[in-house]
Every structure is written in C-alpha cells, then in structure tokens.
Design brief:
Layout (H helix, E strand, L loop, with lengths): L3 E5 L3 H14 L7 H7 L3 E8 L2 E9 L7 E8 L8 H15 L4 E7 L3 H9 L3 E6 L8 E5 L2
Parallel strand pairs: 4-5
Antiparallel strand pairs: 1-2, 2-3, 3-4, 5-7, 6-7
C-alpha cells in the first residue's frame, strides 16, 4: 500500500476532489462545488491520496444540540478498495469523533453500495435506520457502533 495522505479540504481544489469521490460513490445525490463549500462550514471534510492518486474522502459530522452522536463517513473509490485505505480513513475519523466528544458514532451508506455496507458491518456497525431523501428511490442506511 502506498503511503496515504489525508488532507483537510479547505479550498476549491480539495473541495473538487472531495466532490468527485462523493458524487462517484453517491450518484443519487450529486453535489455542486457550492454544496461542498457549504458542507465544509458544518462538517470536517478530508481528502485522501495514495501518492498523487485520489483514493477517497471522509466526512465527520459534529454532534448537534444535546445529541452526542458523531457521524463518520469514509468513502474509497472502487479502484482503490481492499487496500487498507478505508480502514485508515475510518481510523482517523474515529479519532476526530472522539475529539469532538462523541457519545455514539454512526455512519451512513447508500443501500446500493454493497462494499460500503460490508465494510461498515466489518467495523462493527449495526443498522438502526433506513430513509429516503425526497425524490430518491434508493434508501440510505444509518448504522451505529453498539
């Protein structure tokens, strides 16, 4: 495995790479560059590279209100899966979640992303909810660490 560099998405070049990974893995909810800029004001967005190759991205959603649940979503492009990148991204996401005071940790996976669901379950996540966004036909699955 090539060294993995995980960078905080903090400008348009990194936002574009984060967006590319997101939109590749979640084609049912493609985001614009402006959407990503807005998300970066609420969430921690990271981008992962193996050498110069873009391999994945991550979102860490901070707890809201009295709920101490932090959501960690690690995404790896299909051509780079099963090489340890998701595990490394997820590990960094867990560190960030703990630093945010996580009382619980969740992730969200599009139901059609079978590899993503297998990965989440292998990390110990269990399904707690399914939901559809307006106009979507493929549900999202919320999973939580017990």
């Amino acid at each position: 495995m090539a060294d993995l560099r995980i960078l905080r998405a903090d400008g348009d070049a990194l936002f574009r790479d984060w967006r590319h990974v997101h939109n590749t893995i979640i084609p049912t909810h493609a985001l614009s560059l402006e959407d990503v800029r807005e998300r970066s004001t609420r969430n921690v967005l990271d981008v992962a590279y193996a050498g110069d190759a873009l391999v994945g991205c991550m979102t860490v959603r901070a707890p809201e209100g009295d709920d101490a649940t932090v959501t960690v979503i690690a995404r790896v492009l299909p051509g780079h899966r099963r090489q340890g990148y998701g595990t490394r991204l997820y590990g960094q996401g867990l560190e960030q979640a703990r630093a945010l005071g996580a009382g619980a940790i969740e992730t969200v996976v599009l139901e059609s992303n079978h590899e993503g669901l297998l990965f989440a379950r292998a990390q110990g996540f269990v399904e707690v909810e399914r939901y559809l966004l307006d106009g979507d036909t493929i549900p999202y699955i919320t999973l939580r660490l017990p």
